[in-house]
């Protein structure tokens, strides 16, 4: 047994062990959970006060944004983290994308071990079965209601009752907020670096080569929501100053270079061509020298830090 424990400990990732302790609003404190988490070796503990029925948890969202590769999120029990199996799997998927791990002290879930991964796969199968059963029950209920002459759906929404419409609106806002926060770390750093000196159109163009297909309006609306929730600086929404065409090209090239300094001049030129950007002389074909001229100019103006120029190839 001692040997097994030693082997298990040696396989554990070398990153931080970060505890997450949550209690409902009517519960007193998180001390009991904190004691277990510290005994399990957690370097830091994030506390949250909120209902388990809600996914709107600012402390958990911030933790998921900031956790790093090799770190492990630790909870005392699964119900402290997720409100359902599907919610749990979403959180673990977010951690996996970032190279982080998950562990529950009182449940057989530990994504750093083969046994824990097997338990997770079983949970995934249960969640899929649960969704299928719910779908079948819903369809059966609709068929039974129709046979009795009843109309499916929420009567309050059909009758446009204010309280029912308010609940739908609140649910839609919560779902929108969850979607925004799930991808925050992929695009917000670029927005913070480029706003308000650059237009939303230019920022959307910088994000597109990285697989983030934002429209300028959707991007602006997402940032507006973050500002309203006090998760972003209101200065991001200031109006961009007017720019000459060549100034706009300079800031666009600077944005591409800053977002990925490993890109060569030729690769940046290729991205500009795929974005259908015209050269300073109006041409459609970009050369590495044209890109370098704009990067050098951006360095002279302080738009990007002075550093060795990117390679041509």
TrEMBL record:
A GO biological process held by the record: DNA integration
Active-site residues per Swiss-Prot or TrEMBL entry: 24 (o-(5'-phospho-dna)-serine intermediate)
InterPro entries, A to Z: Recombinase_CS (IPR006118), Resolv_N (IPR006119), Resolvase-like_N_sf (IPR036162), SSR_resolvase (IPR050639)
Entry keyword annotation includes DNA-binding: yes
A GO term, aspect molecular function: DNA binding
Coiled-coil region: none
Record key words, sorted: DNA integration, DNA invertase, DNA recombination, DNA-binding
One Pfam family it belongs to: Resolvase
Sequence ranges assigned to domain Resolvase/invertase-type recombinase catalytic in this UniProt record: 16-149
Leader peptide range in chain numbering: none
Region (Disordered): 1-20
Family under the similarity heading: Belongs to the site-specific recombinase resolvase family.
Protein name: Recombinase family protein
Taxon lineage: Bacteria, Pseudomonadati, Pseudomonadota, Alphaproteobacteria, Hyphomicrobiales
């Amino acid at each position: 047994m001692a040997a097994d424990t030693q082997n298990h400990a040696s396989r554990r990732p070398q990153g931080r062990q970060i505890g997450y302790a949550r209690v409902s609003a009517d519960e007193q404190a998180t001390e009991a959970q904190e004691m277990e988490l510290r005994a399990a070796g957690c370097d830091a503990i994030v506390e949250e006060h909120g209902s388990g029925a809600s996914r709107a948890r600012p402390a958990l969202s911030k933790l998921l944004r900031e956790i790093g590769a090799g770190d492990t999120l630790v909870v005392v029990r699964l119900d402290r983290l997720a409100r359902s199996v599907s919610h749990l799997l979403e959180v673990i998927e977010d951690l996996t994308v970032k190279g982080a791990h998950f562990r529950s002290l009182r449940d057989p879930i530990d994504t750093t071990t083969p046994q824990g991964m097997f338990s997770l796969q079983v949970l995934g199968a249960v969640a899929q079965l649960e969704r299928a059963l719910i779908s079948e029950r819903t369809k059966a209920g609709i068929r039974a209601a129709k046979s009795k002459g009843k109309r499916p759906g929420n009567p309050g929404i059909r009758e446009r009752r204010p309280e029912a419409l308010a609940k739908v609106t609140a649910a839609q806002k919560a779902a929108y907020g969850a979607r925004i926060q799930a991808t925050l770390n992929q695009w917000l750093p670029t927005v913070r670096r480029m706003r308000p000196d650059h237009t939303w159109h230019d920022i959307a163009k910088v994000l597109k080569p990285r697989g983030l297909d934002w429209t300028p309006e959707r991007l602006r609306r997402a940032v507006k929501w973050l500002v309203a929730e006090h998760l972003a600086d209101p200065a991001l929404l200031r109006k961009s100053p007017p720019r000459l065409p060549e100034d706009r090209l300079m800031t666009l090239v600077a944005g591409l270079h800053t977002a990925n300094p490993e890109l060569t001049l030729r690769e940046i030129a290729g991205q500009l061509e795929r974005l259908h950007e015209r050269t300073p002389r109006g041409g459609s074909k970009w050369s590495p020298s044209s890109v370098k001229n704009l990067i050098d100019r951006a360095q002279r103006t302080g738009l990007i830090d002075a550093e060795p120029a990117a390679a041509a190839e």
